[in-house]
Amino acid sequence: MTAVAARRPLAWTRTESPQEDAFAGVVGGAAILLAGPPPAEGAEDLDSHMQRLGTLAPALGNLDAFLQAVVDSGLQGRGGAGFPVAAKMAAIAAIGRQPLLVVNGSESEPASRKDWTLLCLRPHLVLDGAALGAAAVGADTAVLQLHRGSVGPAAALRRALEQRRVAGLADPAFQIRFGPNRYVAGESSAVRAFLAGSAAKPSPGGGHAAGRGQPVLVQNVESVALLGLIGRHGPDWFRQLGTLTSPGPSLVTLVGAVGWPGRVVEVARPVPLSQLLSQWAGITRAPQAVLFGGYAGSWADGRQAWDLDISRDALAGAGLTFGCGMVGVLPWDACGLAETARILEYLAGESSGQCGPCMFGLPGLARAMTGLARGSASAGDLRRLARMSTELTGRGGCHHPDGAVALLEHALTVFSDDVSHHLRRGRCDRAQRTPVFPIPTPDAESSWR
Amino acid sequence: MTFRLKIDLERCSGHGICALLAPASIDLDQWGFPVLRAEPLMAGAEARSARRAVAACPASALQLESVPELQPHR
């Protein structure tokens, strides 16, 4: 079993290199995305990559067959929303003007590390997929979009690009761009706005077909890496992995009270949460609760989630979010209300301030939740909280407020006993524990451009 | 003919004039931003007041669209 990639401190600036104390794993089969040399060796070079996987030339030589393979593979985007990749590619191609391909590595979920790990360890896998994807939609340029401070991925990509230039590979023109370190700046419409020279803020309808100007196809790093593998091995191979309706391997990031926060694990075929956590987090009994999908994700009761399969389908079936693949563990000695309040304060600060309900509503929501976590809220405050969340749902140009409301609603359900305790007797002892989930410190340079 | 109001919340700055002019179709949330009635508006008084609200919006954030009508079966 292949193992080992990235253990790293959960700081907001992603400057550390993963090699030293790197760690990653795999469950449910052999590694696909993280196969190859051990992570301690750092980024795989072109020679090793080519020896292991062979040339991309056959796929590049028959792009129609490749596009059909993407359709048949059923690949769903790995950025969070799970949108079918083939449909996005077809929509862009249908515009009929030369598009730009954006490989989106602006991994904005504060605790997610999967794209960062993939870029640091397997840059050629990502660049292969970008070369193939760009050729298939007729793009001659591919932008590698990172957050400012993504030093490790940028260095790995630069070295990889130099190796490809020397080898004379048939690549598009690659450009590395750095966008702002903001939660919503990695959303595809925000990336598109950033590349057009505007503030990296989401816009309504954020769709895939650009209006005026050049059409821009935005695909997540992991999705792009999978394109390169589908081009080589075909859709039938891909469909043997993952699940029927959500095929292929998926990367998840373990965070919170796990042995190594930030460890990335490849799920080749779905396994129960219990197996994932016992094998790669050293957790052998159900935790208090699990936060799935990211900070705008969903809480689940730990004992109910313990036997749940880690797949987009199984989580959706249980009313939970797979999102970016974050699996966050809340231990028994922590307070879910306090953790949720801290995350909501963070999400409120990350509103792009474009829509009034989000700009004023999210801070209101966060304040009320903080009051509840501190034990200073009344039953009336709880009713106000419920009213605010109703009034916020569906009210933004993007889904940022919806995500925050969903997190809150899951918290009030999963931690309902704590809610009544906090209302009647004030803050619980667990609320004073050291925070479990890391909250990024605001970017010193808070520019949106 | 029926109509539907549309709000661009990125433009809206919460003046609240629309809710004064078309109270039957527009409420304000607790932060002063409009919440639009989900059902289409009928031609006549409802549509007239909605049109006044659209014209009065200082941020040009409000729009009135006509909704294509389905032919009723007889």
Description:
The complex is a heterodimer of chains A (449) and B (74). Chain A is α/β, with parallel strands linked by helices. Among the domains of chain A are: 34-239, Rossmann fold (3-Layer(aba) Sandwich); 336-432, de novo design (two linked rop proteins) (Up-down Bundle), CATH 1.20.1440. In chain A, 43% of the residues lie in helices and 12% in strands. Chain A has helices at 46-53, 57-61, 63-73, 85-95, 114-121, 123-137, 151-167, 188-195, 221-233, 235-239, 273-280, 302-305, 312-317, 336-349, 356-374, 379-392, 400-414, 416-425; strands at residues 24-27, 100-105, 141-147, 173-179, 216-220, 250-256, 263-267, 289-292, 298-301, 326-330. In chain A, the strands form two sheets. In chain A, strands 1-7-6-10-8-9 form a six-stranded mixed sheet. A four-stranded parallel sheet of chain A has the order 4-3-2-5, sandwiched between helices. By secondary structure, chain B is an alpha+beta fold. Chain B has two helices and five strands; from the N terminus they run E-H-E-E-E-H-E. Chain B has helices at 17-21, 45-56; strands at residues 2-7, 26-28, 34-36, 41-42, 62-67. A three-stranded antiparallel sheet of chain B has the order 4-1-5, covered by helices on one side. In chain B, strands 2-3 form a two-stranded antiparallel ribbon. Chain B is elongated, with a radius of gyration of 13 Å. Chain A binds chain B through residues 203-204, 354-357, 360-361, 364, 387-388, 391, 395-397, and chain B through 8-10, 12-14, 29-33, 35.
